[in-house]
Design brief:
The protein is of the alpha/beta class. It is built from ten helices and 18 strands. Strands 10-11-9-12-13-14 form a six-stranded mixed β-sheet, with helices on both faces. Strands 3-1-8-5-6 form a five-stranded mixed β-sheet, with no helix packed on it. The two termini are 63 Å apart.
Length: 427
């Protein structure tokens, strides 16, 4: 089955934790800190694969995670980096954040490979935190956590020309005649369930990519039937060939059909409805009724609106060549850059998380708090001023130090020591 949507959970790798250790060798009784750094977590990467044309690989497996970085070791050993995970998708896949629907990446055009979630940085070992006043740091930096997201993958077909029209008007027959595509063709009274692409090659003219967009029905713009599933595939096309059953072989009025389909396009996206159109009045080989000429009626109705009408027969090939050469010439005249979807959701900004190390230990009846950020903060904060002390209290709360002290069982009146500072704890 053709799959053009999938919802998956993705996760980058966690950074490995830094290591806390001290050099212990014979004749070196007071070795310094030698804890190594943790490895970097693996990135979660999307990459275009020319051999894919559906998202069916993502229908049966929903969770994908890159490798975690390994923790650092003693003797300054660096942890091994986590392995990147590359997910392959067909060209034209748009990656969206599942909750907001905002675009993270459009895998089309020049964008063939994109890192969507970066792995967490490895934590620093305690060797990095030795200072003149703290020569035996008993803490190391934890690795940054993994970033995770639920994303919606949507395949939006990339084609210069889209064939639109009601079901069973001959779009698949036309596509199979003029391209190398091999759609299933029969007298179905329901729509094709997947878009088919083919390349049109013309002698002496520039070829183009044509897509048989699955047949639309009334109410498609409101999601009736599989409306939204189908309409998304015309978002990238530069020109549309509107195929109608000129013979009215199923009792439909071709003029009325065109107006109904255009109303659905307008309701879905007014900008798409304004793109150039050509009418392919198909099934001319089935026009037997004497009297009113349906081709002339279509021309009188739409050519004054700037929409040319070409009588064709997908079955016999009559008139098809004239249609294709006109479309090739018209595409040369359309000054429209390839449709790509701009990034709206930036995981690096939305999922920021930075954790700095500190330790809370109970020693000799006091709660000792140590860490590089604490030492730095105390160096530039004037605790004698009311404003400076308020800043200090806010710092303890926002970094989680107060929660950690309470978890260790601190009671009112107990003493807290931070480097050269001592104070009694009160809520």
């Amino acid at each position: 089955m053709f799959a053009d949507r999938a919802k998956i959970y993705i996760r980058s790798g966690k950074g490995g934790d830094g290591h806390c250790s001290f050099r212990r060798e014979l004749y070196v009784p007071n070795g310094g800190p030698d804890g190594g750094d943790g490895g970097r977590g693996g990135d979660l990467i999307f990459e275009v694969d020319e051999g894919l044309n559906t998202l069916s690989d993502y229908r049966h497996r929903r969770k994908y995670a890159a490798g975690d970085g390994e923790p650092g070791g003693k003797r300054r050993c660096h942890g091994k980096d986590g392995k990147d995970l590359v997910l392959h998708v067909p060209e034209g896949t748009v990656i969206k954040e599942a909750v907001s629907g905002k675009v993270i990446a459009d895998m089309s055009g020049e964008n063939r490979r994109q890192v969507v979630l970066k792995g967490g940085k490895g934590g620093l070992g305690n060797q990095h935190f030795a200072t003149a006043t703290m020569q035996v740091p008993k803490y190391a930096q934890p690795g940054q956590p993994a970033r995770e997201l639920e994303v919606q993958l949507e395949l939006k077909v990339i084609a210069d020309v889209g064939l639109i029209g009601f079901p069973n008007v001959g779009k698949s027959t036309l596509l199979s005649r003029v391209t190398n595509a091999e759609p299933k063709i029969a007298n179905y009274h329901f729509t094709t369930l997947s878009p088919n692409l083919g390349v049109v090659d013309l002698d002496g003219a520039k070829g183009f990519v044509m897509a048989d967009i699955p047949g639309l029905i009334e109410g498609a713009s409101q999601g009736v039937g599989l409306g939204h599933e189908f309409l998304r595939h015309i978002e990238r096309t530069r020109l549309m060939i509107h195929v109608v059953d000129a013979a009215g072989s199923e009792g439909r009025d071709p003029v009325d059909d065109i107006y109904k389909i255009n109303e659905e396009l307008k309701a879905y996206n007014p900008e798409i409805a304004e793109r150039p159109q050509v009418i392919a009045a198909n099934k001319t080989d089935l026009i037997y009724e004497p009297g009113e000429d349906p081709i002339e009626r279509l021309k009188q109705e739409f050519e004054p609106k700037g929409i040319p009408v070409f009588p064709i027969s997908g079955a016999t090939g009559a008139g098809v060549s004239e249609l294709l050469y006109y479309v090739s010439t018209r595409l040369e005249q359309i000054d429209m850059p390839p449709v790509t979807f701009e990034q709206e959701f930036f995981p690096e900004d939305e999922l920021i998380f930075e954790e700095l190390p500190y330790t809370v230990e109970k020693e000799d009846g006091m709660y000792v708090v140590e860490g590089p950020k604490i030492e730095k903060m105390l160096g530039y904060t004037n605790l004698d001023s009311e404003k400076g002390f308020a800043f200090f209290q806010k710092f303890l709360k926002e970094t989680g130090i107060l929660d950690e002290l309470e978890a260790k069982g601190i009671q009112e009146g107990d003493t807290v020591k931070m480097y050269g500072l001592q104070f009694d704890y009160y809520k």
